[in-house]
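Regression test attached.
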Amino acid sequence: MTEFPKKTLRIGLIGSGFIAEFHLRSMIGVRNVEVTGVYSRNAENRQRICTLVTQLELGDCTSYGSLSEMLQSDDIDAVWLLSPNHTRLDTMRTIHEEVTAGRSKIFAVACEKPLGRTVSEAREMLRLVEDAKLNHGYLENQVFSTAVLRGKEIIWRRAASTTGRPYLARAAEEHSGPHAAWFWQGDKQGGGVLNDMMCHSVEVSRHLLTEPGKPRNSLKVKSVNGTVATLKWNRPRYADELKARYGAEVDYRNRPSEDFARGTVVLEDETGQELIIEATTSWAYVGAGLRIQLELLGPEYAMEFNTLGTGLKIFMSREVQGSEGEDLVEKQNAEQGQMPVLEDEAGVYGYTDENRHMVECFRKGETPLETFHDGLAVVEILIGLYKSAETGQTVHFPAPDLEDYVPLVARPA
Ligand SMILES: NC(=O)c1ccc[n+]([C@@H]2O[C@H](COP(=O)([O-])OP(=O)(O)OC[C@H]3O[C@@H](n4cnc5c(N)ncnc54)[C@H](OP(=O)(O)O)[C@@H]3O)[C@@H](O)[C@H]2O)c1
């Protein structure tokens, strides 16, 4: 039996790519944690992570070429599931098998978005984690963005308490396209930008609209209406650019996923008050870099936040020459001119407070603010939006026929 609280949570990473590095960089702002292992298929990738763990003084990290071996190790308490979407369920099955057979002593799993590519996948993730009696957290970083933490607290304490609850949340996340081939492949990723990024917009909006202290299911989804389109990346020049970058498997002349999505989600609170989420996401936004825009509106107040409206800006003239990078903001598109800089991306995007929260909950044996239940609820909304976009109809909830629905771009050719 694990005794709580544990003094230190020792975590193993599953995956060694972009998001694994982001999580590591944020961990220097988290107490009571050590990173003691990493598993992915390629030894060089794992070594890169181990070296970073050493540089950041986050612990002694062992590189594992087998997931089971890492799960069976005596110095792993919890795993962060950070591998691509199409590996999610198999990974969770291995975790379930090792724990239920008594070979692994891990007691918690934190999983990146999305929880599954379909409702049935996400529901199976939840079933497996609960059947193995593991504590679970759904990693939705925007809920823990420093601006969201501060903004939500002020709005609800000062304005909603005296003039009434907020009724409209608007959320947008846009950039110029993801960084690895599998994101662009509908079957592997589960869809296009709607699946990849609207998961953030939907969940941060649900969070902002939820009264502090109330469970997320105090809001009920009534209906969803979505639109998807491919605006940029199916144009011949850009389709060819993708093929040159990622190989023939990313074929946007013939098999494009959507690079634009819009969704309206109608909800109801416990008193029957109607609430709305308006979300828009795109991989076709060429601005300074990743742009997250959030608004929360109520009867006598408004909150707004834009990650590119930074206090810090840097100007570099055309005489400044240098290599391309993402050292100013994520998905940066230029190295010259007037440019916004995020001094603390891990904090502003929410990774630091997210990991602090998950580590503290797991260490103490408490239920996190975001669990696999929330991951499943998000997938239900996204899949409803895909179905609405395909049929041209609003989807009314509850919608049991969404269970095995696969978005058009994710179906086999
Ligand atoms: N919260 C956010 O804003 C955010 C941002 C980006 C990504 N994500 C999510 O994080 C996850 C990973 O995305 P990423 O951007 O890190 O992708 P990525 O850069 O392509 O990295 C994927 C990593 O997974 C490893 N991998 C591949 N197959 C694996 C398997 N079967 N088992 C274990 N590891 C495997 C790869 O290493 P090997 O080749 O060595 O196996 C690679 O290190 C995705 O689910 C994505 O949706 C979230």
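Expected vs. actual: identical. The radius of gyration is 21 Å.
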